[in-house]
# Entry
Amino acid sequence: MIVEKDFGDSLPQDVEKRHSLEAQGARRKGIGRARNYLLYAALRPEHRWVYWRDVDIVENPPTVVEDLMRHGRDVIVPNIWFHRIGKDGKEIEGRYDYNSWQESWRGRRLRSRLDKDTILAEGYKEYRTHRSYLNWMAYDNRKKRLKHLHDEVSLDGIGGVNILVKADVHRAGINFPCYPFENQADTEGFAAMAKRAGYGVYGLPNYVVWHVDTEEKEGNLKGRKDEEKKKGG
# Structure
């Protein structure tokens, strides 16, 4: 099945404007709206799972769906990194998705001070949440933590690159908010809504799916890239 729907939105598509802080509210609400349209157009009574997958994934284990299903979680995501071949022929890899995270006390305090109609966009200096990101939780030989490929962590927000959801979670009315829900929208709002309803949201720090390197991190995430360099990331 191929579903096509044009909402008539005219959001800018160049990298700088698309990832500017000013564009995030409308952009994320629009993506959430599109996901919901697709969900209700495609979901059938016999479906047990819903698998959300970005078109620009370049590499993943061939059994990724089965691997995620074996956990039996209501909502689960893998870790998302990027890699490419540099000009010198060497492989370059790095953390990609910062939308999968565990909430911090600073994040909760920030949300308590925001207007209820504000959508909190992760990765911008204007919103310093100090959240714990899934892509920083991968096994570290120095810290001896989360060694197994299928180790799980509980999450409060998730990105949209690769998600497996029990279909009954969606049937219960948990979708992708195209409006501010706890100051989040789209996939991060979905995670907040799922947890509010009592469902479990989990991530796999050591199970990696590779996203194309869009080189879009020089804008909103440049400061974070600098921090990673200092830490040797």
